[in-house]
C-alpha cells in the first residue's frame, strides 16, 4: 500500500512539477516579449520603410530581403527562401467614380478589386441595379440587369460579436459579385466595402472571375459612398454611375516565402511552423494585415533564443507570400513539405491583426484538440480563454492534408475591419502592448507544442 | 416516484426555460446596442462639443446640463440632480520646464499635478535627485535632498498583463511624492508619467499633500522627458532642472451628480445603479476617462426602454461628479442614499475605458459572488470570461458601507494608459464597436441583477 501511495504521490508531484516549470517558462516568455520585445520596431520598419508589398511588387521583394536579413541577424540556425511564382496585378492610375443625377456629378471613393480588369480608357457609365444578395439578383433576370452596373450593398451584420463572422457573411459579394453580375449581362459590379464603420475609405480585396463569363470591371465603394448611392437610387432610380479604373494583370512574377529555423535538439524531424503573410494590398502599409503576424512569428523564435530555450523539435517562422490574391506561398510551402517528406506536427498562423490575444482556433481531430486541454490553465492568466475548434489560417491551410494540426491565433476582432485593406491599416493603429502580447501568446503555444507534441 | 420525477423534470425544464428566456433577452440587448446604439454619438458630443470638464469648470457645468437633457429626452421616469460642493483647481497658464546643463537649456514637457501649488512666478530651479521609491528617498536623508528637486522615476512595470496593476504599482509616486520629498526639505517634485508608452505627453493626475509638511510644487514629466532627464543626470549629475507652473486651488464650487431613473414595477425600493464619472482632467476630452462610462450608463437604460424591458427593480444611471480630484460626488451619492434609507442592492461602474469587454470585478461576500455563477454561461458568448472577485469603482466605492454589491466593468486594459489624463484621451481613440459592446455588457448584467436580485 505504501508503495502505491508513494507511486501515486510521485505521479502527482511530477505532474505539478511539470505544470510549475511550464508556468514559469511561460511567465518568462511574456516578460521577454513585454520587457525586451522587438516586434514593434520591426513592424515600424516593415510598414514605414518598406510599406505596401503586393505580390510581384518591388515592395514585396524588399520585404523578402529584409525579413531574411532580420532573421539572419538573429542568428537562427537556418534562414532560407522558397521560390514561388505569384500573380502580378497592378492598380495603375487612381480610380475615378461619380453618381450622375441629371446634370449633377457627385464623386464617390472607389478602389478596383484585386484581380479585376480595367474599364475601357473612357470608363463605363450605366444605370444601377442595387441588390443585397445573389438570389435577389438572379430573381431580377437578364432583362433588368443587362447593360447595367450591379451594386451589391449587403452590409456586414453589426450584431455579430466576432467581426470575422460578419465578414464571412458578406464577402461573397466581393469575391463573386462580378461573375454573378456578368452572367446576367451587367457591364460592371460595385461592391459595398467590407467594414462596420461608416467612412470614406474603399476597402479593396481579392475577387475571382468564373469561367465562361465576360470579365467585367469591379470595384469596392466606401460605406459612405454606398449609403449615398443607395439613397440617391431611392430618390432617382434613373441615375447613372460612372467609373474608370486602370488595373491590369501582368505575367506571373518570381517571389519567395521566407523561412527561419531553430533546429530541434531531440526530434529535429518534427516541425512546428509559426507564420504570417508577408504580402499586403497595394493601398495599405499592411500593419495589421499582416505585418503583425510576420514580426510576431520572428519574435517567437527570438524569444526562445533569448531565453535559452532549446526546442526539442524544429521550429520555423514562415513569412508566406501571396495570401491576398492567390495563396501561392501557402500552397508552395505545403507542396515542398510533402515533396521533402517533412513531418509538420503543428502550424500556428497570426493573420487576424496585432490586437489583444483572446485564444486560438484549432483544426484537428477531437483527440488532437483534447491534447491541448491540460494547457489551458497555463494560458488563462494571459487572457487566452477562447481555445477550441475553430479555423487555422489561409496560408497554413494546405498543410492540413499532411495531417498537420492547425492553430489560428485569435486576437480581439473588433477593430480589424475598420482598417482592413485600406490606407488606414498603418503602423499607428497598432498598440505596442497588444502586438507584444500576441507574440508572447504564440510563443507560449509553440513552447507547449514543442514540449509535449500532439 | 413518478411525482418526484415529474417534479424534478419541471424544475429542470423551468430552469432551462428561464435560461433560454434570459439568453434571448441578452441577445436582443446586444443587437440593440450594436444595431441602434446611441452611446457613440453621445460620446462625440460630450468630448467634441463640451470637451474638458474638470470639477468646478464651465465644461463640467455644461456636461451636467447636457446629460440631464439627454436623459430627459429619452423619457426616463425621473431625471434629477444631486448638489455637491467640489474642489476647484485651475491650471492657469501652460507650464514651462527645462534641463539646464552648463549653458544649454533643453525643454521638456511637464504638466502640473492636480491639486499642486504653483511655483513662485519666476519658477523654481534646483539640482535633481533621482529615485525609484520612497525607501530609496528616505535612505538619502535630508542632507542630500534639502533644496533639491526630487525626480521620481519608477516606471509602470510593462510585464504586468493588466495595466491597472502596473499603474497601482507606480501611482504612489504621483499621489504622495511631493509630500515625501517635502519631508526631507525638497523644493519640488517631478514624477514620471503613469504610462507604458514612450511619448511626449505628460500625464497629469491627482495628488494630495500630507498634513504638516511644506506644500511644494509637483508636476508630471513625459516618459521621453523622464528618460532624457535620467540620462542627462548620469552624464551630468550637477545639472539643474527648472520649472514654472501657475495653478491654484480656488474655493469649492457648486456642482452636481446627474441621475436618471427607470422605476421598478415590482420592487421599486430596490435600486440598481449603473454609472460613470462626468468630470475629466482639464487637459483631456475625457473620452475613455470617463465619457465612455457615462454614455454607456445612459445607454443601459435606453436599451431597456427600447426593448420594452420593464425592470422589476429601480434602475439608475448616475453621472458622478469629481472622481478625478476629490470623489465628492461618489461620497455624496452614498450619503444621500443612507439619509433617504434607500436600498441599493447593486452598483455597476464603468471607469476603465471604452474598450472591448472582458468581464466584471465583484466586491461582495462569497455568497453574493456565488449568486452570479449561474449567469456566467449567458455572458461567455459575448467575451465576458473574467467575472469574479475584483474591484468595483471609485465612485460606487462609498456604497459598500451600505451593503451594496459592487461590480467594476472590466474592459481590455492594454491601451488605457496610452491616453490616460492627456490630450490624447480623445474621441478618435474610441472604437464604436468596443464602446457599444461595453454598454451591452453592462446592460446584460443589469438585466440579470434586476431579474434575480442578489
TrEMBL record, chains A, B:
<keyword id="KW-0256">Endoplasmic reticulum</keyword>
<dbReference type="Pfam" id="PF04389">
    <property type="entry name" value="Peptidase_M28"/>
</dbReference>
<keyword id="KW-0458">Lysosome</keyword>
<keyword id="KW-0964">Secreted</keyword>
<keyword id="KW-0479">Metal-binding</keyword>
<keyword id="KW-0378">Hydrolase</keyword>
<keyword id="KW-0865">Zymogen</keyword>
<keyword id="KW-0645">Protease</keyword>
<keyword id="KW-0482">Metalloprotease</keyword>
<comment type="subunit">
    <text>Homodimer. The monomeric form is inactive while the homodimer is active.</text>
</comment>
<keyword id="KW-0325">Glycoprotein</keyword>
<dbReference type="InterPro" id="IPR007484">
    <property type="entry name" value="Peptidase_M28"/>
</dbReference>
<keyword id="KW-0333">Golgi apparatus</keyword>
<dbReference type="InterPro" id="IPR039866">
    <property type="entry name" value="CPQ"/>
</dbReference>
<protein>
    <recommendedName>
        <fullName>Carboxypeptidase Q</fullName>
    </recommendedName>
</protein>
<feature type="signal peptide">
    <location>
        <begin position="1"/>
        <end position="18"/>
    </location>
</feature>
<keyword id="KW-0862">Zinc</keyword>
<feature type="domain" description="Peptidase M28">
    <location>
        <begin position="257"/>
        <end position="442"/>
    </location>
</feature>
<keyword id="KW-0121">Carboxypeptidase</keyword>
<keyword id="KW-0732">Signal</keyword>
